[in-house]
Write a structure and sequence with these properties.
The chain is α/β, with parallel strands linked by helices. It has two domains: 156 residues, 3-Layer(aba) Sandwich (Rossmann fold), CATH 3.40.50.720; 250 residues, Dihydrodipicolinate Reductase, domain 2 (2-Layer Sandwich), CATH 3.30.360.10. The chain has ten helices and 18 strands. It has a nine-stranded mixed beta sheet with strand order 17-16-15-14-8-13-12-9-18. It has a seven-stranded mixed beta sheet with strand order 1-4-3-2-5-6-7, with helices on both faces. It comes from Catenulispora acidiphila (strain DSM 44928 / JCM 14897 / NBRC 102108 / NRRL B-24433 / ID139908).
Length: 413
């Protein structure tokens, strides 16, 4: 079933792929209308207005499984048309980019179909539910790139200005030899044992729990900041509440609970320590059972000549320590990452007027649009997503086998 969004323009027209150079617009098809679908919709709406981009996004169509819900989303978020069959959206010749915000179980099938149809693809993280799916998606993306069809994984935290600044400091050698990475991601939204069994708590839909939802961000950021990948690790995972009331809503973050109960089939928390390329040590913790922590994502990198530390709950700030400075006045300095020369801030507000979570997605869309217009591969790539998937698989293997050490597969390095 499909519709025109209650009076919105139908969006039909001839293809004008962003790589052709013959169009000033980039026509978007979004699949998924939950929390991430809403966030991506707002970002596509904002990017052409807030930022000067070479191709202005046009919101052609949105797809979702529930006709009533997706029709409502289309009207609310400015999409010209809607459908409850993602395949019809992929087949349309008036769409240049497919943006995938569905549960992980659908990532591989949709991405493979979209790439085969010649559509650029933005796929939410983690790339897939399994390592095998990630391999297949990466191979397809590399083949498509040879035809000028580009792809990117949606690790939005890379687009936080303070984190991008931290990466610049590491790349400039301001931290010296990298020795430690410490990363935690703490939430509490399922701490209540009567919270319903939504899709994020089912392995067949989500792939994994806190590990893939939160830990994937940490693994990607550790690589983004340091340029060093994980080579081996030892891990433990835990499911604290093994049964929950069945959800009466498909929402990934909320939903009413019914009287029947079902089994939680993903992890509630994951911890692991790792070796990185170049000899650095790293520790990671991801949990949805940290009462009082709503979205506490923190990462610190220590080197021979300094350290950087970041807390997303103070997302416009970066803490920087210069170990080469005079000891009498040494200490962590607070950098307010809102100056025009800081990453991404050329497009936004005057100094001191901070950005928010939604701006990371606008910055993401900006990077993707600029890459498509230039015909250059955007980052993070599907190959980067494959690396993260390899680490997640190694964590699961280590936890399942209670092994002292598990190597990360070389093909994911």
């Amino acid at each position: 079933m499909s519709g025109d969004g209650s009076g919105l323009v139908s969006g039909d027209g001839e293809s004008n792929n962003g790589n052709s150079g013959g169009s000033s617009t980039l026509r978007i098809g979004l699949i998924g209308h939950g929390f991430m679908g809403r966030m991506h919709s707002l970002a596509w709406q904002s990017v052409g207005r807030a930022v000067e981009v070479p191709l202005v996004p046009e919101l052609i169509a949105i797809a979702g499984r529930n006709p009533g819900s997706v029709a409502k989303a289309a009207r609310a978020w400015g999409w010209q048309s809607w459908t409850d069959d993602w395949r019809t959206l992929v087949a349309r010749d008036d769409i240049d980019v497919i943006d995938i915000t569905t549960p992980g179980a659908l990532h591989a099938e949709i991405a493979l179909a979209a790439l085969a149809a010649g559509k650029h693809v933005l796929c939410e993280k983690p790339l897939a539910n399994t390592l095998a799916e990630a391999r297949e998606m990466t191979a397809a993306a590399e083949e498509a790139a040879a035809r000028g069809v580009l792809s990117m994984v949606g690790f939005n935290y890379r687009r936080t200005p303070a984190l991008a600044l931290a990466r610049d400091l590491v790349a400039q050698g301001r931290l010296g030899e990298i020795r430690h990475v410490r990363a935690v991601y703490l939430q509490d939204w399922i701490n209540d044992p009567e919270f319903p069994l939504v899709w994020r708590l089912r392995k067949e839909e989500a792939g994994s729990g806190a590990l893939g939802d939160l830990g994937a961000h940490l693994v990607d950021l550790a690589y983004f900041l340091t340029g060093r990948r994980i080579t081996g690790l030892s891990a433990r995972t835990r499911t604290f509440v093994e049964e929950r009331p069945l959800a009466t809503s498909a929402s990934g973050l909320s939903g009413a609970a019914g009287s029947e109960r079902g089994r939680v089939t993903v992890d509630d928390a994951a911890v692991f320590f790792a070796d990185c390329e170049g000899g650095a040590l790293a520790t990671f913790e991801a949990t949805r059972f940290a009462p009082g922590r709503k979205n506490a994502m923190r990462i610190e990198v220590n080197g021979s000549e300094g350290s950087v530390a970041f807390d997303f709950e103070a997302m416009n700030e970066l803490q920087f320590y210069d170990a080469t400075s005079d000891a009498a006045g040494a200490g962590f300095s607070r950098i307010l990452a809102t100056e025009p020369q800081h990453p991404y801030l050329d497009a936004w507000w005057p100094p001191g007027h901070g950005l928010g979570y939604d701006h990371t997605f606008v910055n993401q869309k900006r990077d993707l649009i600029e890459a498509i217009a230039a015909g250059k591969a955007p980052t993070p790539s599907f190959a980067d997503g494959l690396y993260v998937q390899g680490v997640l698989a190694a964590v699961e293997d280590s936890a399942r086998n209670r092994s002292a050490w598990t190597a990360v597969t070389q093909e994911a390095l």
